[in-house]
Every structure is written in structure tokens, then in C-alpha cells.
Amino acid sequence: MAGLGAAFRRLGALSGAGALGLASYGAHGAQFPDAYGKELFDKTNKHHFLHSLALLGVPLCRKPLWAGLLLASGTTLFCTTFYYQALSGDPSVQTLAPVGGSLLLLGWLALAL
């Protein structure tokens, strides 16, 4: 399982790099449809960073496969949904966010158990 944990650690590092790139884009290049879009983008980016850090801790837990899959898929669903809405102004995919948030919650619980 050490190799599996290392894979999630690398994924967390790559996700963190992606979050940093998106933060730079949001601060310097993005065109938001309104002030809410900018606020939503910034909040989403904070969640992206936080859950990237959580992925770095996956190798230290007893069930790295469960914790890693739940955190990675939850981060993808949750953050992608809100990044899209922030940049486009289109809330049509917003229904995926609660699924992503639930997966993130389960991922944190998997880290704790």
C-alpha cells in the first residue's frame, strides 16, 4: 500500500500546483461575469488548496485507497462545478456540488478512521 499512498501524495502535489495556477489565473487573467463569480472562484480555490493538502496526508492513514479516492473525486466534482459556474455564470451543473461535498466529507472521515 506504500505505492498507493505515494500516488495520492503525488496527486495532491499536482492538485496543489493546479490550484496555484488557477489562483494566478483568477487574480490576473480571468473575466468574471459579475462580482459573485469572482467571490465564488476565490472560495472554490481555497477549497481546492485545502483538499490538495488533505491528499498529501493520505499515505498516513489506514485506508489510503478509500481516503484518496473519496478526496480526489470529491475535489474534482465540487471544485470543477464551482469553477465552471464562476467563470461562465451558468449554474446548470451546480447540482453536482453536493455530491462532491459529500464525497469530501466521507474522505475526511476515511482519513480519521
UniProtKB/TrEMBL annotation:
InterPro entries: DUF423. It is a multi-pass membrane protein. It comes from the Eukaryota. GO terms for cellular component: membrane. Keywords: Membrane, Transmembrane, Transmembrane helix. Its main location: membrane. The keyword Transmembrane helix applies. The chain crosses the membrane at residues 65-84, 96-112. It is found in: Membrane. Belongs to the TMEM256 family. This is Transmembrane protein 256. It comes from Tursiops truncatus.
